[in-house]
Amino acid sequence: MSLDNPQKVDDAWPHTQTALFVIDSDTCFGEPIEDLISEIKSCSHLSNIGSHRGSELTGLGVHFRKDRAENIDEIIPKSLLFIDVDILSETKLGTYVEGYSIPRPSEVVIVSDGSDTDPERVRDEKRQSAEIARSKEDVLNEAEDYFKKICPECRGDAAKKHVEVWKQAAYHRLNN
Known about the structure:
- The chain is α/β, with parallel strands linked by helices.
- It has helices at about 35-40, 70-75, 85-90, 95-100, 120-125, 135-150, 150-155, 155-175, and strands spanning about 15-20, 25-30, 30, 55-65, 80-85, 105-110, 130-135.
């Protein structure tokens, strides 16, 4: 995937945020992942109604299975990552999250859906800033919180700067 290197904040906007689910199942907490993606995309920060009318922020959702978990060039351009705890602990994706492959401004959420693997242990080993989702509500709340962080209507220039910094980091990881 090609990603431009923004030279200033305005180069990073408008922005389409992609939420990536790396889960080796069609469901997450009993919900079809496609339905969960639809709920995430209906969040108020992406709604284009009310105070968000005319927003430069839009959203997409993508689902990868375990066999694509190590394709880092496809993962880097997504900055909201929901990753199954077992995939994170059993594949090279864990190494990418732990190191510098995944840009620091990216949001990593460890999904613990019926696994025996301890998500706190994996977080401590891989990325201490990662969040943990133990329910569908946690997934939706983490998405809402992240979209609020990057919503120019809610956070103004700080949100726009966050996206610019993320895009610069992702560009450099893909091109160096």
